[in-house]
Design a protein that fits this description.
It is built from 2 helices and 3 strands. By secondary structure, it is an alpha+beta fold.
């Protein structure tokens, strides 16, 4: 058998590197989930604003962009599209947000994340 004298420093370096990589991977997963949840919430809130009786679709887009900029910063690249659709036979507003899926910090795959928010259109009887 070989003598294992001096193998502790090499083992420490290898195990430390592996644990650092694992910890950073878990943190990055948390960042990606935070971004996804933030964009999903912003899309849903934008749809609710755009579906109000006295609102125009631009109001929903503006509110969605404001929420994303507030939570993720002004430089986070997103595309916001507001449209009308039907949901279970009723008129609804749809806000579709496409953004970058973060891979390293907030940098990542452009247009790798797409979420949609829906809200029932508010109608005021005359």
């Amino acid at each position: 058998m070989r003598d294992e004298t001096g193998s502790a420093p090499a083992e420490f370096v290898l195990v430390s590197a592996m644990l650092c990589f694992l910890a950073l991977s878990v943190i990055q997963l948390g960042v990606a989930l935070h971004v996804r949840n933030t964009i999903t919430d912003a899309a849903a809130e934008g749809a609710r604003i755009a579906a109000l009786a006295d609102a125009v679709p631009g109001d929903g887009e503006l509110r969605t962009r404001q929420l994303i900029a507030l939570a993720l910063g002004d430089g986070y690249p997103v595309t916001v599209a507001v449209g009308q659709t039907e949901w279970l036979g009723h008129p609804a507003t749809e806000v579709r947000v496409t953004g970058a899926l973060p891979v390293i910090a907030l940098l990542g795959v452009s247009e790798g994340l797409e979420v949609t928010g829906h809200a029932a259109v508010e109608e005021v009887p005359e």
